[in-house]
């Protein structure tokens, strides 16, 4: 059965390029991102892992731990990382899970038979400090992920976890938010002292409350 938003992210113990980890222990009280790669020494994945390493400061600023998974063995990962560092002009600075037995890929439903019997699709899971899945994304093997979109979604998830707001289409950090329907306009005026703009009774906006 596939994982749904709000499910507890499956725990596991695995070998990685940074040693053996227990996933939930490794996450601690942090947010986390686990994302899969169809195989080592593949071109799109090489750019993706490099881009993730380049964005290290952005993930750290948001308190997000990043971990990748590929179904190849540890020695293959070690050699591949050399290529990533060379071609992407960076240093891979997060663990890469060796998932030869596909245990992690199966736990997270990352293998889609319609795409391939063996290789994982490009799955992304964002996990909250409560270990619950907050976001899932699945890309085909041919399409590289947009990491700016992943960071944008993390910004929205972290904001809406702490305030009774939602984020509108194409929202970016610093822009106005939507007051959730559960909050009355009267209460919203008290909760959001920066002001509430009533466009329709069900559509009310307010400046981002944590800015």
Automatic annotation (TrEMBL):
Keywords on record: Antioxidant, Oxidoreductase, Peroxidase, Redox-active center
UniProt keyword Glycoprotein present: no
Gene3D superfamilies assigned: Antioxidant, Horf6, Chain A, domain2 (3.30.1020.10), Glutaredoxin (3.40.30.10)
InterPro entries hit by this protein: AhpC/TSA (IPR000866), Peroxiredoxin_AhpC-typ (IPR024706), Peroxiredoxin_C (IPR019479), PRX_1cys (IPR045020), Thioredoxin-like_sf (IPR036249), Thioredoxin_domain (IPR013766)
Family annotation (CDD domains): PRX_1cys
Transmembrane stretches, start-end: none
Domain (Thioredoxin) ranges: 3-159
Any Pfam family hit: 1-cysPrx_C
Membership in a protein family: Belongs to the peroxiredoxin family. AhpC/Prx1 subfamily. Belongs to the peroxiredoxin family. Prx6 subfamily.
Protein name per UniProt: Peroxiredoxin
Species in which this protein is naturally found: Nibrella saemangeumensis
Upper lineage: Bacteria, Pseudomonadati, Bacteroidota, Cytophagia, Cytophagales
